[in-house]
Amino acid sequence: MESYTNPLKIEPIQRNTVTEIVAQRLMRLLSEGVLRPGDKLPAERDLAQQLRVGRTTVREALKLLTLSGILEARRGDGTYVRQDFTAFLTQQIRWPVLLCRREVNMIVEVREGLEVKAAGLAAQRATPEDIERIAVFRQLQQIEGRDIELETELDMQFHHAIAVAAHNELLLQIMLSLQGIIRQYIALSSEATDRLETTFAEHQAIYDAIVARDPAAAERAMMNHLTISRRGILDAALGSDKD
Questions:
Q1: In the chain, domain spans
Q2: Could you read off the pLDDT of 92-137 as tens digits, one per residue?
Q3: CB hemisphere CA count around 4 (13 angstroms)
Q4: Closest to 198 measured CA to CA, from 158, 157, 229
Q5: pTM here?
């Protein structure tokens, strides 16, 4: 009787290498907001000492994240977190997606599912440090005239701080993967409507509910904020006759 030889050649499962573990540790710092877009990373020697691994391992981990589009190596200056490090997750999403009423509604529905929940969790779990970061929205009052880029950045920081304060790593990772399209949405909302004072008041209501440790109020305030934002884009930017 002939023996059966399996023609498939399946590679055995490999354990994570130390390089991959270091890369994952750096990604966690990004997801937790410890490292932010534009930040310069410590020198390889310092990272190696803090992580208790060899410099070669750190160098390979940095190279891996650089090739992934998350970090940027600047010759003679060091390694930085790319300003658009989430772009590789949203490369197929562009401004035209926001020119359709259906797509705007889809984006807000996803944001509602994530950010309303995040606000409720933040009201339960936010640390004093988290609350201090959420208060970044107060800088909106310091803007003279209109500065769409700065308004968008402060709005992004506000929503990101709430996601961090939820202390749910999976929720935060999903939020990070959507950052590109959310930034575009917020920028369009700012351009389409003159509602800086209204936005500040909406953010204040969310902040107050989180500080008061009132999850239901925080969720209602976030839902109200997202609903008003959607209405502003649809009415001012798209017009009532667009599909």
A1: 18-85, 89-238
A2: 334 444 445 677 788 888 999 999 999 999 999 999 999 999 999 9
A3: 2
A4: 229
A5: 0.61
